[in-house]
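JOB MANIFEST
job_type = single_chain_structure
chain_count = 1
residues = 373
[input]
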Amino acid sequence: MKSVNGQEIIQLFESWSPKHLACMENDPIGLAIGTLNKPVNKVLVTLDVNDAVADEAIAQGCELIIAHHPPIFRRLANIRTDNPAGQLYEKLIKHDIAVYAAHTNLDVAEGGVNDLLADALLLENRSILEETYAEDVLKLSVFVPTADADVLREALAKAGAGRLGSYEACSYTSSGEGRFRALEGANPHVGSIGELHVEEEVKVEVVLPASIKNRVLKALLNAHPYEEPAYDIIRLEQQTNRMGLGRVGYLPKEMLLQDFAEFVKKQLDVPTVRVVGDLQSTVRKIALVGGDGNKYIYTAKRAGADVFLTGDMYFHTAQDAQAIGLQIVDPGHHVEKVMIAGVAKKMATLCETKKYRVEFVQSTIHTEPFLFV
């Protein structure tokens, strides 16, 4: 195992939950407090950052906090240490504890907040509720000597090119002849200086998401035997890596809405839920959005959901849902706490693959502000 700094940990985190997945305008994600340019031995994972969580990080000896809810949500005009927010920032800075926030990007990411909620509810045959991100697809065509084609194809595949759904190393090859004359100063792989050379070549074509273009081109140039390989890249009409907010899925079996409400309380560890709908109706198809999903009631209805599970449901939005025949279960915003164990486990696994010596600590501070009496 090897020591690691904060930047390396966050680079690994963003390979799973990159910033470009954020789907809220001006979402204050990323490093909020402190610096990542330092050694990190312990990371505290938490839903929120408040005074008690800061004390927990100090007591645990954590140098970094990864939170879902940004500790600085709106632009600051000042940092005053005579108010609670300023005192919190002061405490974190004095103890050299950095805070990194992953908000809506963690909602969208595969295995993120919404998938963790769907896992807890045992939802099957899942799909995205609302697509918020899709990546352009490129096609790379390159000419290479026939004898070197297998090596090149393998290098492109290792770089991530040629992945189609559940398949990898996909490519198309056509045969032909390549012609060139090497000039003075060249170092040709085949042929002689000043002579027109004809080489049996193949054209290898692969598709790739636009985000890995530079990585694939680097692999191509490293693996190709020619000094100046000929290739072209075109943008296709199709898109890939479609991701989005919320999930839609099916319960393992039908149940009454009243029983589903009880199931939610148990699975998400909440004392109570608010329900809109007929408690004796049968439900199976569930749409969910962690946190505040008020603006997605019509999306959930169009998805054919029997129930929409989300937090912070407004009174008038609940009435609108009732009017369109969409049943609601509101377990509160705090159910996003599922990310604490989920992120800690995911990051521990990712760091293990890199042989990083770092511990991920799950916050035990209950940050739900509401009491139920």
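[summary]
Residues 338-353 form the longest helix (16 residues).
Residues 113-132+244-333 form a domain with the Udp-n-acetylmuramoylalanyl-d-glutamate--2,6- Diaminopimelate Ligase; Chain: A, domain 1 fold (CATH 3.40.1390.30).
exit_status = 0
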